[in-house]
Amino acid sequence: MEFCTKLRATDRRLIQRLASGTTPGAHRLLSAVEECAEGTKLWCGVSVVMALAGGRRGRRAAASALAALTVAQTVSNGLCKHLVRRPRPPKDWVPHDEVEDRPDSPSFPSGHTAAAAAFTAAVLPVWPLAGVLCAIPAALVAVERVQSGAHYPSDVAAGAVIGLGSAWIVRHGPEMAKARRVHLPATLNV
């Protein structure tokens, strides 16, 4: 119980610090990045550019990233939000009107952050330069989710963990499944 109390206090401090300490220019940039990332538009667009401009490596990076994004979205939005059902941060924690323009869905975890982290982490081992470039908007998305009052910092951290785990599963899952494949006899006597 003490952990939950400390986590809530830390979440509140971080939300208030980011929400009140962001300059108008940074606020506009964060809002623009979030708008692009809404509905995974940003990541789908980046995938198209990588596939068209990056040759075989670009197509591999795009396919891996979209697969990881899909896993992350399924886990975060399709599973975790329905299990945890955490409400959004209180509106009085956020001293600007952007808090009025947030979803009504549960807060935990941040699906935007899960998608951004999954996409970036899946691109990085296939095409390191593209992965580093993807990390910039991914970090901005994570910051924006807290700054706007849409998520607690702990929601964003959980989304990042889900995203990283999703990228790991997409990268290593097939080889692990292949190594553990159980070979059944051609005929089973049932």
Structural class by SSE content: mainly alpha
Radius of gyration: 19 Å
Number of strands: 0
Cα separation of the termini: 52 Å
Q: What portion of the residues fall into strands of 2 or more residues?
A: under 5%
**Percent range for helical residues?**
over 70%
Largest sheet: none
Total helix count? 7
Order of helices and strands: HHHHHHH
Q: How confident overall, as mean pLDDT?
A: 88
Shape category: globular
Low-confidence stretches: none
Number of domains: 1
Summarize the structure.
It is found in: Cell membrane. The protein is mainly alpha-helical.
Folded structure, characterized:
This protein is an all-alpha fold. It has one domain. It is 74% helix and 0% strand. The chain has helices at 2-21, 24-37, 41-53, 55-84, 111-126, 128-147, 153-179. α3 (41-53) packs antiparallel against α4 (55-84), α4 (55-84) crosses α7 (153-179) and α5 (111-126) crosses α7. The chain is globular. The protein starts with a helix and ends in an 11-residue tail after the last helix. 41% of the residues are buried.
Keywords:
single chain; 190 residues; mainly alpha; 7 helices; 0% strand
Give the helix/strand layout.
Blueprint: H1 2-21, H2 24-37, H3 41-53, H4 55-84, H5 111-126, H6 128-147, H7 153-179
Helix pairs in contact: 2-6, 3-4, 4-5, 4-7, 5-6, 5-7
